Amino acid sequence: xxxxxxxxxxxxxxxxxxxxxxxxxxxxxxxxxxxxxxxxxxxxxxxxxxxxxxxxxxxxxxxxxxxxxxxxxxxxxxxxxxxxxxxxxxxxxxxxxxxxxxxxxxxxxxxxxxxxxxxxxxxxxxxxxxxxxxxxxxxxxxxxxxxxxxxxxxxxxxxxxxxxxxxxxxxxxxxxxxxxxxxxxxxxxxxxxxxxxxxxxxxxxxxxxxxxxxxxxxxxxxxxxxxxxxxxxxxxxxxxxxxxxxxxxxxxxxxxxxxxxxxxxxxxxxxxxxxxxxxxxxxxxxxxxxxxxxxxxxxxxxxxxxxxxxxxxxxxxxxxxxxxxxxxxxxxxxxxxxxxxxxxxxxxxxxxxxxxxxxxxxxxxxxxxxxxxxxxxxxxxxxxxxxxxxxxxxxxxxxxxxxxxxxxxxxxxxxxxxxxxxxxxxxxxxxxxxxxxxxxxxxxxxxxxxxxxxxxxxxxxxxxxxxxxxxxxxxxxxxxxxxxxxxxxxxxxxxxxxxxxxxxxxxxxxxxxxxxxxxxxxxxxxxxxxxxxxxxxxxxxxxxxxxxxxxxxxxxxxxxxxxxxxxxxxxxxxxxxxxxxxxxxxxxxxxxxxxxxxxxxxxxxxxxxxxxxxxxxxxxxxxxxxxxxxxxxxxxxxxxxxxxxxxxxxxxxxxxxxxxxxxxxxxxxxxxxxxxxxxxxxxxxxxxxxxxxxxxxxxxxxxxxxxxxxxxxxxxxxxxxxxxxxxxxxxxxxxxxxxxxxxxxxxxxxxxxxxxxxxxxxxxxxxxxxxxxxxxxxxxxxxxxxx
Length: 787
Known about the structure:
By secondary structure, the chain is of the alpha+beta class. Among the domains are: 339-359 and 394-402, no CATH class; 409-454 and 628-709, no CATH class. It has 14 helices and 33 strands. It has a four-stranded antiparallel beta sheet, with no helix packed on it. It has a four-stranded antiparallel beta sheet with strand order 2-3-4-5, with no helix packed on it. Strand 29 (342-345) and strand 30 form a beta hairpin. The chain starts with 20 loop residues before the first strand and ends in a 15-residue tail after the last helix. The model is unreliable at 1-13, 369-380, 463-559 and 579-616 (pLDDT under 50). Keywords: Autophagy, Lysosome, Membrane, Metal-binding, Repeat, Transferase, Ubl conjugation pathway, WD repeat, Zinc, Zinc-finger. Pfam families: WD40. Pathway: Protein modification; protein ubiquitination.
């Protein structure tokens, strides 16, 4: 079988032509790559591996490389690359850790050429050398990079990045021996293929994994990187230390980055999740994309410019199982829809507002400020650069200042410094914070803290609180019908006759809390067939009536007045309607000819002798409202404070109340409050308070804020090279790297060192040494200083 026929198109007199078009794939694509003459594209994924021809009006499928009844995992591709020197050579990175090369010139149906299975985990990237035909580089999840000579059956070099995984590897376009590798720990390393023992340079490029990198095709020293921190950074590698020269902030994690041909300052990016669009950025204007392609309905997984010298055609594959060719003239230009207005609050409440000059000049009703023009002419206009191809727009900046006396933010700083959010009981925290707010002349906030203490704190039992004593009564307590005179309220009390003294109303003596139980009085009621139980409707019993301690016939002197201690809540309410009487008493009332009217209602309930009518085995009312009763009110209160701009109060209450209120507020709202408050604290440079708030937060998105950028990179004090292991011995010079310069023993605890000479030791030893000496105890001659 002859070599696969191809349509070659030379760039120049016969330039590339086409239109925006797409085709449906059999499965989602993971990566794409284009051949050197820009006439064919290979699409690879977990379940697809095909070659398509790029014709004038459509994609045409040319070859399916997945052959066999049950294709092996070698066909499941994470990445693919078409060699730019040899037109029949492809390489794929398999998800099972294999690196596979494919020869399209093979006469057989199966085009697989060589299989390398040296990686232990998934291979993330493969890259051919731009000028060397037989050199192939791979980067794997196992943390190793391997260089293969396709004329041999195994790798010729192995590079260890000392990291979890390698995300991308790229040979330099201009430097024959150099390649860059990006890692999941945020580092980028530069290697020389002739020295596999250690990297030439390493620097931290992003906070979080670096997913991609790309060398500039024209400028030798420019390297673009993209990471999970949603940034694209351009580094100048020609200096002694990698220098960040441009930074583009995107809205999602950056999965791919590719420089645009023939445009020095343009590059294309796509996201790993959330955002489905492809953006082309002018790195000199990092705040708004230069162009946008919005055709894909799912995450874009691969982008490549169709020809290395043609900036007008971009190819892309996606998880939505489509392959697109984008014409640059059909791209959306976000700058055409952007408003040239801006609004920003200053730290002390000042407001800056920028608006298009054309709107200001056309507004005839705009009155000048009495004190003169408030525009701040401290900025200079950028000269128009025709190569940027951006519309030139100028705006007018106005600054509105607040009255410092009325809008001073000292209260915010003092409140943040003086508030207590943890470490003491709940009531003490509320009292302390209320006192702080009162001293800062914020009475409403102070009252709020006091009310929160009342709502959510458990009441302390007092010595004379009958409420608490009620719960500890004996299981069966009784009182007499004679004592019902004080139960029914002032209008329906059980009175004897007019003018008759109420000596039968026995009050509880102070200090006594138990009721005398008489088994004889607890017998069945006269004339009834079983135990008598009465319900008094909504009537509530007086504490005094529940505790008769004396005999019923004993009189109480009129001059002696017994009162209950004041309670926090009203214990009863008046009963207007008289409760119904028991049936047998109602029958007695109907048969009695001696009474009439209200007197009949009263006297008929007077028993002939004292009998027990009611038994109490549990409290008649709850002594305290549970805190959950107030949660809806507190939630509304916190929302009110946040809407008024006092997010400090909302977050402080949220932390102090803890689990009492946290479940009542959704996580997104809590996260928004926390982020706003932390941002304010950091703008006022209240770093300690900010860190305390982060530590006390229960939102996962907040607690991780103080866990980023906490890695400490240590160099060996002997060979000055980075320490790669976690022990005390340098794996390069085999010397103890953390020996004390004073006592010469290994420092296993707190270690202090000089940033000038890297020598140090035990904290106490260094402190004592430098009290009497100014030179380094190691004898290097450096003038060390302990501050």
